Every structure is written in structure tokens, then in C-alpha cells.
Amino acid sequence: MRNFSKHQYQPRKFYQLNFRITSPTLRVIDSQGKQVGVIGKQEALNIAGEKGLDLVLIAPNANPPVAKIIDFKKFLYQEEKKLKEARKGQRKGVVKDIKLSLFIGPADFERMVNKGKEFIDDGNQLRINLGLKGREMAKKTMAFDLIKKYIAGLGEVSLSKEPRLDGRVIRAVMSKKK
User: Fold this and answer.
1) Quick one: CATH architecture of 18-88?
2) Which of 25, 114, 136, 139 is placed for a possible disulfide with 132 were both Cys, Cβ 3.0 to 4.6 Å?
3) Are the C-beta atoms of 35 and 69 separated by less than 8 Å?
């Protein structure tokens, strides 16, 4: 049986550099971004060697393949930085849970409403769970009224899932109104 880690597998991008480049002719770009032209691999390696930099194959599928004369470690660092920056803005809306009970006190109810407002203002989705125990199942209308009162206390929210009874729990999911 395969053992999967909790981190999603992301294949690394491998670059051919210096003598590992197999193409005989290359379109070469120097370190300032100017085109040197279409030249042979050996000549490009000589130019890179004179400058003390690496010849890195950037676009292997182009015709002819594109290679760039750059400091490879600096290039990898900048690529990593770009990936991290892209991941920052990619945060998905996390679903936060709030658990209520049917006979909750007014102060606790107000505290839960404030906590829900915080979650929604942070850009998260909010799931309300109201569990019914034993004889509380007979008071479903009272429970639905409590959920509606909670949603009204949050202010402007859009319901992605209307309050509904799942077994012994009433659930509703909402997020910030767009």
C-alpha cells in the first residue's frame, strides 16, 4: 500500500544547463535580456564561461530552443520567490465552525455572533451547527428561529447553504456578501 504524505506532490521543474544541453543550435539571450542570436552550443558555452555564468535552457520546445546566460542559483531563488508570492494570494476560504445549543444565554449568544462576524470579515466561510439533544428534537421551530436570529445578527451575509436539519443537527453555511 502506498504511503501518501499530507503535502500535495508538486513536481519540480528541471532545467538543462551547460553541458547537459543536447541541442546543437540555440537562440541565446544574454544576462541583460538582449538577444545574442542563433548560435552553436559550444560558442554559447564559451560566452557564458567568459562571463562566469551558466547557460540554461529556458524553452526546450521552441524551434530553435531558447537558452539564457544567467547565474543559475540566483535564477532558482527568484523562481522560488515568485512561487511563494503566487501562493500568498491563493488562500482558499476556510470553513470555520460555530457550535450553538438551543438554550444558550444572551451573553454567550452575543459572543458567538461577534466571533462569527470576525470569521466572515477575515474572508472565511462560516458553518453554524446547532445540535439537538433528546427532547429538544420536539422544539425544531425554536431551533430554526435561533439560527435565523443568529444570521440576522451577523448582518450582510450570503447563505450558501440554507438552515436545514441533518439528523439531530441543524446546519447553515454562509460567507461575506459580494
Assistant:
1) Roll (3.10)
2) 136
3) no
